[in-house]
Amino acid sequence: MYEAKTKATDQSVMEFIEQIDHTQRREDAYRLLEIFSDATGFNAVMWGDSMIGFGAYRYRYASGHEGETFLAGFSPRKAKISLYLNLWDSQSERLLEGLGKHTRGKSCVYISKLADVDLEVLKELIVLSVKLAKEKYPDHGV
């Protein structure tokens, strides 16, 4: 049976952020911590060794695969900051158009620094992300 590699841990979020070498990346991480906490209403929790997640839910795919993950989160990686958001609808697409400089993966939005994006749009995206995950998995809150 498949077991997820990325799980919530007891690692300190603050200690993790303090270990970030790049000064601007560390400052952005502290600001993102504040933005995500305010937008989600959840406390930050380390997931794996490099992701900071807010809230949690259980998911189950049609294939039967299931697991637990955070509702929204970020990771201040060396190359880019990864924003983990559930963006499944046209409203997400419209908001992303106004976000600012970013690239997008399958389930991530990548930014170089917070100064490149509109923070109000980012907050809206985080709120929408949590709403969409709760709607898609209404009986699976953790």
Q: How many structural units, i.e. domains?
A: 1
What is the N-to-C succession of helices and strands?
Answer: HHEEEEEEHEEH
> How much is the average pLDDT?
91
Q: In the CATH hierarchy, what is the class?
A: Alpha Beta
The CATH topology: Aspartate Aminotransferase, domain 1
Which consecutive residue ranges, at least 5 long each, have pLDDT under 50? none
State the major sheet. Answer: 6 strands, antiparallel
Distance between the terminal alpha carbons, to the nearest Å?
Answer: 21 Å
Residues in helix, %: 25-40%
Number of helices: 4
Structural class: alpha+beta
Q: Tell me the strand order in the biggest sheet.
A: 1-2-5-6-8-7
Q: Which percent band covers the strand fraction?
A: 15-25%
Give Rg in angstroms.
15 Å
Question: Any guess at the CATH architecture?
Answer: Alpha-Beta Complex
- What shape does the CA trace take? globular
Number of strands: 8
Q: Can you lay out the helices and strands and say which pair or pack?
A:
Layout: H1 13-18, H2 23-40, E1 44-47, E2 51-54, E3 57-60, E4 66-69, E5 72-76, E6 81-84, H3 90-97, E7 103-104, E8 108-111, H4 119-136
Antiparallel strand pairs: 1-2, 2-5, 3-4, 5-6, 6-8, 7-8
Helix pairs in contact: 2-4, 3-4
Structure characterization notes:
- By secondary structure, the chain is of the alpha+beta class.
- The protein has a single domain, classed as Aspartate Aminotransferase, domain 1 (Alpha-Beta Complex).
- Helices cover 35% and strands 22% of the residues.
- It has four helices and eight strands.
- The chain has a six-stranded antiparallel beta sheet.
- The two termini are 21 Å apart.
